[in-house]
Specification:
The protein is an alpha/beta fold. Helix content is 39%, strand content 18%. It is globular. The mean pLDDT is 92.
């Protein structure tokens, strides 16, 4: 069975989508069958892999709300081992439409259960909120990666997210684990960046990945080409960092070659 990893933080601008796209692509480059699920109504993971969200007629929204088989919604990527379950703006309405549905927190788990056996990893890009879609993602997931930017307000909201994860572990998904805290947007030239790294590692040493994702021009520009950074520029610091992260995830799950 494939491992489902949600990438979540209710704080925006922490590198969630960048991490989802590039971790998924790096796992695919390492020949792990990977599905990237875009569970954010902004559909940035969808467009970041070269798909136009306006052209998406079936995505994760239809799988959750209308019971569409995800096999009919999944789109192949140019990377041999990478598939995408896209999103579009209608996902915004899913939270309202699902309010009165029975087992509303488990709709994503039900949908992904249909295709889970076909992948080694399923990576879910969550929206920057703790709404019903994110709760669905955390209920469906085996573990969660929490991106934290190396900036002044880094730890703000982290406690709230960890509390939400505890509630989900208690009520909806007792198997949910924290895969790790991922430090992102790191600038080695600033003392603040180094200070945040030190602070996060002091508080969450065992939970923090060794890999740190730097601020990188190639990482920032690759979505405008509809490409993961490893395809856009495989030798960039950003590409190497996400490949290192993929290796770390494989090591942690006993899947290294």
């Amino acid at each position: 069975m494939g491992k489902i990893i949600a990438i979540a933080n209710q704080k925006g601008g922490v590198g969630k989508t960048t991490s989802a796209i590039n971790l998924a692509a790096s796992l695919a480059v390492l020949e792990k069958r990977t599905l990237l699920v875009d569970a954010d109504p902004q559909a940035n993971s969808t467009s970041g892999l070269g798909l136009n969200p306006k052209d998406v007629t079936q995505g994760i929204y239809e799988c959750m709300v209308d019971g569409v088989n995800p096999k009919d919604a999944i789109v192949k990527n140019d990377l041999k081992f990478l598939d995408v379950l896209p999103s579009h703006i209608d996902l915004v309405g899913a939270e309202v439409e699902m309010v009165n549905i029975e087992r509303r927190e488990e709709k994503m788990r039900d949908a992904l259960g249909i295709v889970r056996d076909e992948y080694d990893f399923i990576i879910i890009d969550c929206s920057p909120s703790l709404g019903l879609i994110t709760i669905n993602a955390l209920t469906a997931a085996d573990s969660v990666i929490i991106p934290v930017q190396c900036e002044y307000f880094a730890l703000e909201g982290l406690g709230k997210l960890l509390n939400t994860i505890k509630i989900i572990q208690t009520r909806l998904n007792p198997k949910l684990e924290i895969e790790g805290i991922l430090l992102t947007l790191y600038d080695a030239r600033t003392s603040l960046g180094n200070q945040v790294v030190e602070e996060v590692r002091t508080h969450f040493l065992k939970m923090t990945f060794n890999t740190i994702i730097p601020r990188n021009v190639k990482l920032s520009e690759s979505p405008s080409f509809g490409l993961p950074v490893i395809v856009h520029d495989a030798e960039s610091k950003g590409a190497i960092s996400y490949l290192n992260l993929a290796h770390e995830v494989l090591d942690k799950n006993g899947m290294s070659k």
